[in-house]
Amino acid sequence: MASSFFARLPVRLPRTQGGRIALSLAFVYIVWGSTYLGVHVSLESFPPLLLSGLRNLLAGIGLFVFAIQRRPQRPTLLEIRNAGLVGTMLVALSSGMLAVGMRTVGTGMAAVMVATVPLFATVIAAVAGRSISKGEWGAVALGLVGIAVLNHGDASAGSAGGSLAILAGALFWAGGAHLAGRLKMPSDLFLSTSLQVGLGGAVSTVIAWTLGERMMDLSFAPALAFLYLVLVGTMGAYVAYGYLIRHTSPIIASSCMYVNPVVAVALGAVTLGEPVTRWTVIATLIILASVGLSFWFDRQRVTS
Questions:
Q1: How many whole angstroms separate alpha carbon 94 and alpha carbon 165?
Q2: Which one of 6, 91, 124, 229 is at 20 to 30 Å from 131 when CA atoms are compared?
Q3: Parent domain of 126
Q4: pLDDT tens digits, residue range 99-142?
Q5: Secondary structure of 161-218 as H, E, C letters
Q6: What DSSP letter does each residue of the chain carry, written as one string?
Q7: 51 vs 156, which has greater pLDDT?
Q8: Phi-psi region for residue 106, left (φ > 0), alpha (ψ -120 to 50) or beta?
Q9: Where is the EamA domain (predicted)?
């Protein structure tokens, strides 16, 4: 299980489950917040869909090699199919659309838009038949207001298309997460993660190649950013996120969605000189408030 993985690492980690949960949260908060910068730098040499595909395909292969060494229970064809379906949603469609959108949208703005995942999750839950309170719908409406404010005054040529691509990626992530909680998946955390990431990456790579995307001249900074995305941003972060999914509530595990934008905005401002305008700050506060409200109403529904 996941606990044995932590025990084998060559660094001293917390021995309690609470400590490991805290470490996993901090890791996901910081790393997934920094991947927006990694994608931005990698796009200097990688076309967007090919970047998403190769990043996840290589990470999936690495996780699969590690997983089979632990001799997990062999997955059924149904579990493999389900993992591929979820991986296509989370990787090929969600990560791919994010990379496409980030060609014209800054790292901080992209991260704030991705924070709308819980809002899309609320809409998907309603379509699936779950009763949604007026407060939850209010949180969704507030999030849409935040998106409108975020794009206020941005007249760049590719801004609208890039924003729509990122929002589509957030919708696909919410849909994939919804399916992941309802479909039968491989019982082993690492095998399940490797199949989702690897199969999703393979689908994205095939789509990219079919559409004519090819590698550009590879320079040092994009190559280093790509390695970071594969080893840390995908392999490490997905395992930490999977650990949270299995040992905490969905609310706690999904809290990264409203912490990551803060990290991304800060890194974009410090390293890339991206402007943090008044509208960016206002929109960030509105969207984070809407996501926080959606989590609060969800907790109220569970405890009532």
A1: 9
A2: 91
A3: 2-303
A4: 899 888 888 778 888 878 877 888 888 888 877 788 878 887 88
A5: HHHHHHHHHHHHHHHHHHHHCCCCCCCCHHHHHHHHHHHHHHHHHHHHHHCCCCCCCC
A6: -HHHHHHHSSS---SSHHHHHHHHHHHHHHHHHHHHHHHHHHTTTS-HHHHHHHHHHHHHHHHHHHHHHT-PPPPPHHHHHHHHHHHIIIIIIIIHHHHHHTTTS-HHHHHHHHTTHHHHHHHHHHHTT----HHHHHHHHHHHHHHHHHTTT---TTHHHHHHHHHHHHHHHHHHHHHHTTS---SSHHHHHHHHHHHHHHHHHHHHHHTT-------HHHHHHHHHIIIIIIIIHHHHHHHHHHHS-HHHHTTHHHHHHHHHHHHHHHHS-----HHHHHHHHHHHHHHHHHHHHHHHHHH-
A7: 51
A8: beta
A9: 25-151, 162-295
| CA-based end-to-end distance of the chain | 33
What's the structural domain count of the chain?
1
Q: What is the pLDDT of residue 204?
A: 93
pLDDT of 275 reads 79
CA distance 253 to 64: 23
**Residue listed under structure tokens 């309603």:** 126
Token code pair at residue 96? 């791919």
Q: Are 87 and 204 in contact (CB under 8 A)?
A: no
240: buried, middle or exposed (CB in 10 Å: 19+, 13-18, 0-12)? buried
Exposure string for 40-57, b = 16+ CB within 10 A, e = fewer: bbbbebbbbbbbbbbbbb
User: pLDDT of 247-266, one tens digit each?
Assistant: 876 666 777 777 787 788 88
